[in-house]
Amino acid sequence: MNPLGASTWIWTSPFGDESLELVVRAKQFGFDVLEIAVEDPDRITGSLLREAGEQAGMTFTVCGAFGPDRDLSHDDAAIRAIGIEYVKRCVDLAVELGAPHFVGPMYSAVGKTRLLDPLERGAQRALAVESLKVVADYAGERNVALGVEPLNRFETDLVNTAEQALELIDLVGSPSLGVLLDSFHMNIDEKSLGDAVRLVGGHLLQVHTCENDRGTPGTGHVQWTELFAALRDIDFDGPLVIESFTPAVKEIAKAVSLWRPLDAEPDELARRGAAFLRASLTPVVA
Q: The CATH number of the domain where 36 resides is what?
């Protein structure tokens, strides 16, 4: 069975040393992996977090937060450099935690949506490729894989689909670069969740298992049966991570246009979401 994970964004933002109790809490709800959302690397002491994970029997993956000052496809080289340095710090944290992946929409800034002509879009993509080559080399030297995450059309103008993600990583040409698929975004921009998964195939590192409203998995209209069937078809054994947010976390709520409470409090969302995923993945014995 795939390891099940929960994002720290379900409960808090920004995550830091004061939130280490989430390691035990997530374990109690049935998760195997805690995805550390890194907004401010200075708030996280890797050695303390790793020790908490070892004591609780919890492993980690690391996710990035890409605001306008961490834009790896920005026209300003100084801003691209800030983004590259941030990714390197997140990779270093992954190494310290023993995490295999650093994931997120690392090709651009979330919320950057512009109507560009093909030449302008090509120039933006070229800058993203140039930056990604640098961070992919850095990650590869440290045995960390980078998972590029397509976002829906309302959150980015550069990579919205699995096909576009594959085109981007093909241009980068690094074996350290793979794909993270998120069912929330796929539900908006993919024609078929299953086809998107099968297209990515062996490049798939991780899946964000999120409901169509970012609420509790299993309570909306995401085609879970189709998604899980496709994951079985490609023999995917990586982590399935629930990523959700609370309006109380104002910066994140604004970035993802979350204007109302979801269908459950964070603990209940995590508990019910883990139970749904585990039940969905458990083989039925005749």
A: 3.20.20.150
Amino acid of residue 79: I
Report the number of distinct structural domains present in the chain.
Answer: 1
Instruction: Count how many Cα atoms sit within 13 Å of the Cα of residue 117 in the half-sphere of its side chain.
Output: 1
Residue 286 lies in a domain: no
* Residue range 89-98: mean pLDDT, rounded: 98
Q: Are 8 and 37 in contact (CB under 8 A)?
A: yes
Classified as helix, coil or strand, 205 is strand
CA 147 to chain centre: 8
Beta-carbon count within 10 A of 134 CB:
16
Catalytic residue among 39, 149, 155, 190: 149
Q: Is 23 contained in some domain?
A: yes
Rounded Cα distance, 284 and 231, in Å: 17
In the structure encoding, which two tokens stand for residue 216, read together?
A: 């509790």
Q: Identity (one letter) of the amino acid at 244?
A: S
Count of Cβ atoms closer than 10 Å to residue 223 Cβ: 16
Residue 18 bears catalytic tag = no
**What element of type H or E holds 225?**
helix 224-233
Full residue range of the structural domain in which residue 257 is found: 4-281
d(CA 55, CA 13): 23
| 14 within 8 A of 40, measured Cβ to Cβ | yes
Q: Is the pTM of this model over 0.85?
A: yes
- Other beta carbons within 10 angstroms of residue 44's beta carbon come to 23
Mean pLDDT, residues 257-270 taken together: 82
Active site includes 149? yes
